Amino acid sequence: MGALMLTLPVTHPDILEFIELKRDLNKVTKANISVMITDDFMKAVRSDSDWTMKYAVEDTGEIIEKTVRAKDIMRTIASSAHSMAEPGVLMWDKVQNWHINSENPQFKYTSTNP
User: Fold this and answer.
1) Could you tell me if 77 and 89 are in contact, meaning their C-beta atoms sit under 8 angstroms apart?
2) C-alpha separations of 33 from 18, 20, 44, 50, 113 in Å
3) Of 10, 44, 95, 97, which is most buried, counting CB atoms within 10 Å of its CB?
4) How many CB atoms lie within 10 A of CB 45?
5) Residue 114 binned pLDDT confidence (cut-offs 50, 70, 90)
6) Cα(17)–Cα(107) distance, rounded to whole angstroms?
7) Rounded to an integer, what distance in angstroms lies between the CA atom of residue 111 and that of residue 5?
8) pTM here?
């Protein structure tokens, strides 16, 4: 039996909606969700800075951008994890830099297995 993990980087403008996705028990019922956290995001949380999220739409070249306080995102993660046991967090810079294929510059993870 397998498992399904849905992940979204903390740099994505829809991250707040994603974090609260599992609060509605009818939306995603057969998958775990996790936020891909970066070192830069954690620095922004510690310094109580704003966090700008961007997404480039490949087909149109449109850039979607949103800015919020990093601590607000982290509080939303903590609140949702406390009440619904999700999302999990993936310390994404660690995943990308500390793995058995890290010496291969062409290898990049896109997600993980739960």
Assistant:
1) yes
2) 8, 10, 22, 24, 11
3) 10
4) 20
5) low
6) 30
7) 8
8) 0.85
Residue 32 in this model has a pLDDT that exceeds 70: yes
In degrees, rounded to 5, the angle at the alpha carbon of residue 72 between the alpha carbons of residues 71 and 74 is 60
The span from the CA of 19 to the CA of 79, in Å, is 10
Query: Over the Cα atoms of the chain, what is R_g?
Result: 15
Across 60-79, average pLDDT: 97
Give the amino acid at 101. Answer: N
DSSP state of 21: G
* Cβ–Cβ < 8 Å for 18, 46: no
pLDDT digits (tens, 9 = 90+) for 97-113: 777 776 777 877 776 76
Q: At what angle do helices 39-46 and 70-84 cross, to 10 degrees?
A: 100
d(CA 102, CA 84): 34
Q: Mean pLDDT, the chain, as a whole number?
A: 90
